[in-house]
Write a structure and sequence with these properties.
This protein has 320 residues and is mainly alpha-helical. It has helices at 8-15, 20-26, 31-54, 60-73, 75-83, 91-105, 109-121, 139-146, 149-163, 169-174, 180-204, 208-232, 241-244, 252-258, 264-269, 278-285, 295-319, and strands spanning 247-248, 291-292. The longest helix is centred in the middle third of the chain and has 25 residues, at 180-204. The protein is globular, with a radius of gyration of 21 Å.
Length: 320
């Protein structure tokens, strides 16, 4: 019989580098760190939005929209933490903020929560992980994914499917039957909101939502695709968490935007640890974590090396 794979947390506990009391302390949730972070977050969103206003009508407006978009698409990081109920100690605050983020980036919150639960259960396992991003088969496939066009096609298709009361075969696996009507109404309400805002823009000739919201999100989403690839892409399709997930060392501003989700391996090891305690958990788990010291760029260097290496191996095989 094959011995069970020990989780990194269990390994750390067994090795004495982390005690159960320390882990329990790290798992304590609090509204205070999140409210402080959120206050700075709102100030940042207003600041980057103001740059669009200040550069309106000039060529620099596109740069401002892109910068604002990079901040807006990072609402994914905040929503992700809210779906784990680890941002705030107060449960309804997680739901409220998570649903606001959902509207901003068109990611229905209840659906995402169920999908993400299966991602944690079946991380990197083909056919089971609903968020699995495959290692691209070519440079064209790599760039196609980074363009975010496949992502938006998937999101619009998903929204339309749910609006008409349908689930994909994959969704039927992870969404409980008793929750399916909630998923459908979530999509319908989101679509109604978007149509109402769009209709208002057309009727009044006021394009604020396009300039300060939808346009920037479209411009910024490739950056989020770039970051999402660094979490698991190129890692083995195995159950062992020490092998299937990366932690990326990034600058403090990027850590702020990511709500510390660059410590992604630690998050998978102990998903109940709040965002503000992940750096401390990382310090405890050094030596038990797959770290990319070169950050997001380094992760992509690794991904591209694997991509071209695989292509080279395939070409060599054909030559034989």
């Amino acid at each position: 019989m094959t011995a069970p794979v020990l989780t990194p947390i269990t390994q750390a506990l067994n090795a004495g580098v982390l005690t159960r009391q320390e882990l329990k302390a790290l798992m304590v949730r609090s509204d205070v760190p999140a409210l402080k972070h959120l206050a700075l977050w709102i100030m940042l969103v207003l600041s980057t939005g103001s740059l669009i206003h200040l550069t309106y009508g000039s060529v620099w407006m596109w740069a401002a929209m892109f910068l604002h978009g990079v901040v807006l698409v990072h609402h994914f990081s905040l929503q992700h933490e809210c779906c784990h109920y680890t941002v705030f100690r107060t449960r309804w605050l997680n739901d409220l903020v998570g649903n606001i983020c959902a509207i901003i980036i068109m990611l229905p919150n209840r659906h995402f929560r169920y999908e993400h639960c299966d991602h944690h259960t079946y991380t990197q396992l083909k056919g089971d992980d609903p968020e699995l991003i495959e290692l691209p088969r070519s440079l064209g496939g790599y760039l196609w994914y980074l363009s975010s066009l496949p992502y938006w096609r998937s999101k619009f298709t998903e929204l339309g499917r749910h609006t008409f009361g349908h689930l994909s075969k994959e969704e039927e696996r992870f969404i409980p039957k008793e929750e399916r009507q909630t998923i459908f109404w979530e999509a319908r309400l989101m679509l109604v909101a978007y149509v109402a805002i769009g209709g208002f823009c057309i009727a009044t000739h006021w394009w604020g939502p396009v300039i300060y919201w939808w346009g920037p999100v479209l411009l910024g989403e490739p950056v989020m695709r770039f970051i999402r690839m660094t979490e698991h892409v190129g890692k083995p399709n195995v159950r062992d968490m020490t092998e299937n997930t990366r932690t990326n060392y990034v600058t403090r501003p990027m850590r702020f935007l990511a709500w510390n989700m660059n410590y992604h391996a630690e998050h998978h090891y102990a998903a109940s640890v709040p965002f503000h305690a992940l750096p401390a958990l990382h310090e405890k788990l050094k030596g038990h974590v797959a770290v990319e010291s070169r950050g997001y760029i380094g992760a992509h260097i690794d991904i591209l090396a694997q991509l071209f290496g695989r292509k080279h191996r395939c070409d060599a095989t054909k030559g034989n």
